[in-house]
Amino acid sequence: MTDLERNKQVVVDYYQTAFGGNPQKAVADHFGPRYVQHNPDAQDGPEAFIGFVTWLRGEYPNLRLDIKRVIAEGDLVVTHSHLDLEPGTDNPGRALADFFRLEDGKVVEHWDVIQEVPKAAANDNGMF
Predict the structure, then answer these.
(1) What mean pLDDT comes out for the span 61-80?
(2) What is the pLDDT of residue 53?
């Protein structure tokens, strides 16, 4: 397996484990010695990440994260995902583009772009 494929697997497992309800395991298994967060609404560090995911799952216990695409280049892995906070409702959720930097197979840095999925669009292409 190439480093790129391994990094993609690390990110997918980390992301699915965390948002599946076990952010502590995701951090223990996949975080490096530091975690730098570029989202201006989030703090650095594993404790802040665990706290955020725990809070989010408390607010939205049925949330689902569906990773649609995974791309890797160098030490970066990018995911394009659908975060459905309230499955089965008329809330279409959010489109996420997440950028992760890895060192030695561990997540050490994160950027994201988040967009609400509109109920109506000017085209029929869909966001995913």
Answers:
(1) 98
(2) 96
Structure letter (DSSP) for residue 105: T
**78 neighbors 59 (Cβ within 8 angstroms):** no
Residue 8 contacts residue 77 (beta carbons within 8 Å): yes
Q: Give Cα 61 distance to the centre of its chain.
A: 17
Q: Span 115-121, mean pLDDT? A: 95
Per-residue pLDDT band for 1 (boundaries 50, 70, 90) equals confident
Note the pLDDT tens digit of each residue in 85-112.
999 999 999 999 999 999 999 999 999 9
For residue 122, the one-letter residue type is A
- Cα within 13 Å of Cα(35), Cβ side: 18
Could you tell me the domains of the chain? 3-116 (3.10.450.50)
Backbone dihedral region for residue 55 (phi beyond 0: left; psi -120 to 50: alpha; all else: beta): alpha
Angle at 81 between CA 43 and CA 49, to 5 degrees: 20
Question: In 10 A of CB 35, how many CB atoms?
Answer: 20
